[in-house]
């Protein structure tokens, strides 16, 4: 009778350890992995997008315009190609010479395609020149 209790206790301990390991592995497997992203564009308006691996997507623009018109401004941000809408963006004045812009999307949707983008409004009007980063699938 004593031998049967020891075997049953050992079996229960082994089953509990296996269940704990399975739960830990299942919990670790739920994180989504993104693909793609990176940088694109000429050196005077290079745009990047990346998964920050903390539930956020970051976009950066590296601009180098030289002398610009005082009316020039840049709209910069993250565009969701899945919903065809702006996920987040900001508008800033152009600067002469080097300019770095950065922004973070704090609530990306799993399975969506995102790009970093710039719209450079050289003369401050509706006409603009655009540059997109490669696509990041979150």
Secondary structure elements and their pairing?
Blueprint: H1 2-28, E1 35-36, E2 38-40, E3 45-51, E4 57-64, E5 73-80, E6 85-93, E7 98-105, E8 113-121, E9 129-132, E10 136-137
Number of H- or I-type helical stretches: 1
Helix content: 10-25%
- Class per helix and strand makeup: alpha+beta
| SSE series | HEEEEEEEEEE
Give the termini distance in whole angstroms: 58 Å
> Main sheet, how many strands, which sense, barrel?
6 strands, antiparallel
Q: In percent, how much strand structure appears in the residues?
A: 35-45%
Assign an overall shape: elongated
Low confidence ranges: 2-30
Rg estimate, integer Å: 25 Å
Number of strands: 10
Query: What value does the average pLDDT take?
Result: 84
Verbal overview:
By secondary structure, this protein is of the alpha+beta class. It has one helix and ten strands; from the N terminus they run αββββββββββ. The strands form two sheets. Strands 1, 5, 6, 8, 9 and 10 form a six-stranded antiparallel β-sheet that branches. Strands 2-3-4-7 form a four-stranded antiparallel β-sheet, with no helix packed on it. The protein is elongated.
């Amino acid at each position: 009778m004593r031998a049967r209790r020891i075997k049953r206790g050992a079996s229960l301990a082994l089953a509990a350890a296996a269940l704990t390991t399975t739960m830990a592995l299942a919990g670790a497997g739920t994180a989504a992995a993104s693909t793609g992203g990176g940088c694109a564009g000429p050196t005077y308006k290079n745009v990047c997008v990346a998964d920050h691996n903390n539930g956020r997507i970051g976009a950066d623009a590296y601009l180098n315009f030289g002398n610009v018109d005082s009316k020039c401004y840049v709209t910069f941000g993250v565009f969701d190609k899945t919903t065809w809408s702006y996920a987040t963006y900001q508008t800033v004045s152009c600067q002469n010479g080097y300019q770095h812009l950065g922004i973070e999307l704090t609530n990306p949707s799993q399975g969506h395609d995102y790009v970093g983008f710039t719209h450079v409004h050289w003369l401050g009007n509706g006409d603009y020149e655009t540059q997109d980063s490669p696509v990041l699938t979150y």
